[in-house]
Amino acid sequence: MKLATFNVNGVNGRLPVLLRWLEEAKPEVVCLQELKAPQEKFPAAALEKAGYGAIWQGQKSWNGVALLARGVAPQETRRGLPGDPEDEQSRYIEGVVAGVLVGCLYLPNGNPAPGPKFDYKLRWFDRLKNYAADLLAHDIPVVLAGDFNVMPTDLDVYKPERWRDDALFRPEVRDAYAELVAQGWTDCLRALHPDERIYTFWDYFRNAFGRDAGLRIDHLLVGPALQDQVRAADVDRHVRGWEKASDHAPVWIQLAEPGDGPE
């Protein structure tokens, strides 16, 4: 199973890019973030024509998450993280595809920091950690994938010294990510490429993509039940160079098919 995450930065405005990538990469499961579309404006028909069933949680103007599956509709299990019934931001959706529970998330940016937006980010991270621990307690095949808006280490940012006070790189956020992973999750891209500078996001400004001035903020975490099934992990960085592309590139992992033996 090829499972990917892609912050599309506007699903309707970037639909040609998304459809082109789906046809090229042919992932079985895709987590999308930053739909920037209300529920009724999600391009379900176009995606169905491309061969993908979908569940989604839209939001006007910003946020929004979706889960796609090739040839089937994901079986929805949750939308929204528990822990704050007053939180109306569309940032989490979850479903089952081919026996794997997939949580698609769009963690808050948090800037400017410090401030209310940063406080919200930390609260959301705490809710994620609590819920993620519950998922692991069930000992099921599970993946958490999406835009985490955090660079875990200095290796994940092109000039660490310039980002020390940013909400994506402050110690509180990196500590929260480390605590999440320490529950028993595997950061697939880093696990398979432990010493490489690999980025998933390049700003539109100052020729960031051309200079490879990037950040690694999109992550795929697998639980222990899938840890030994990860065969590959990479970034389709060339997609960032397409016309009218998102500022993120798709990130993917390849899981062994049921019945496959050890690598």
TrEMBL record:
Family annotation (Gene3D superfamilies): Endonuclease/exonuclease/phosphatase
Entry's transmembrane regions: none
Important for catalytic activity, annotated site positions: 218
Cofactor note: Probably binds two magnesium or manganese ions per subunit.
Cofactor dependency: Mg(2+); Mn(2+)
Keywords: Hydrolase, Magnesium, Manganese, Metal-binding
Annotated residues for binding of Mg(2+): 7, 34, 147, 149, 247-248
Domain of life of the organism encoding this protein: Bacteria
Gene Ontology annotations of biological process type: DNA repair
Molecular function in Gene Ontology: double-stranded DNA 3'-5' DNA exonuclease activity; metal ion binding
Pfam families: Exo_endo_phos
InterPro entries: AP_endonuc_1, Endo/exonu/phosph_ase_sf, Endo/exonuclease/phosphatase, ExoIII-like
Domain Endonuclease/exonuclease/phosphatase stretches: 4-248
Site positions (Interaction with DNA substrate): 248
Active site: 106, 147 (proton donor/acceptor), 248 (proton acceptor)
Site positions (Transition state stabilizer): 149
UniProt family annotation: Belongs to the DNA repair enzymes AP/ExoA family.
Protein name: Exodeoxyribonuclease III
Species whose genome carries this gene: Alsobacter soli
